[in-house]
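Blackboard transcription, Thursday session:
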Amino acid sequence: MEHDTTYADAPAEISHDPAEHVEHHPQWSTYWKVALILGIITAVEVWMYYSPAIVASRGFVPGLLVLSALKFAIVVMFYMHLKYDHKLFRALFTGPLFIAASLLIALMFLFGHLAAKL
Amino acid sequence: MTAPAAAAHPIAHPVVHHYTSTGLDSRKIAIWAFIGSECMLFVSLISTYLIYKGRSRVGPFPHEAWVDPVTGRHLHAILNIPVTSMSTFTLLMSSLFMVLALAAVQNKALPKNTRGERILGSSKLWLWATAIAGTTFLGFQAFEFTSFVHEGLSIRTNLFGSSFFTLTGFHGAHVTAGVIWLLTLLSIDYKRGLGPKDALKVDIAALYWHFVDVVWIAIFTLVYLIK
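(Written on the board underneath:)
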């Protein structure tokens, strides 16, 4: 997606030293496009829920998880600006998220519905 | 902010910088660390819900109908997907409004020649829109909780009720805190106006708001859609 460098890219704080890190945020049209994509993905998820053939298929749960992960990533990258932000912020978010996700998967294998697969 | 700039501002504060040895503002590092810790909290709640999923001995159940053997009362699947879909859409749109509010604050100093630019540049409009969308989401949640209780599901009914109300209740409390945060920003905006120098304050509130949104994205799929 394109980035505006004229209007929406004003520095986050005018008090910053110019030599410091300057944030590059997407332009307004990008935000609207992202919202449209999020709305479409949500509609697809609900449509999948009400489609008996899809619910009965093996791809139902993985499909929903992929769509959910996609929405999660889009919001984090574009609305939370993690795609454009400092790598330290990325580490502060993805580090705990990775640990938490690993813990969730481990708990599901130990006590949840995945325990039967062990 | 330089000393002359601070003096020129209507509410002159002492010059306070929050920069760390990384060159990054400590407040922004703090909010990301907080969000990381919140990931842990919500994953623990989601894990609890998923582990207990399908293990309730008595209904009502989320996706299946149930007949109470004692009373003979027929209870249908309790989750109301159309209502929750609307509340999910509302929360997603609130994230759009929030990011537009941040952009409006960052670009407050720039000239706005067209009507569209004036609308997009109104931080009050987008902060109000975000707060109203958040409150609407809370209204949907209050409706959902009330209808569940009327249908016989409370936090004490079964494992599903306990884990469901705990998880979604914690999320609702976070949304409530976010709405209060937005209202404080709005009060500042009305009092002295939010400008580019306040962008970090709005950015931090926006990060919190978007985090609440992404948590709901996970909850909507894992709790409501996966049968």
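Lecturer's comment: DSSP finds seven helices and two strands in chain B.
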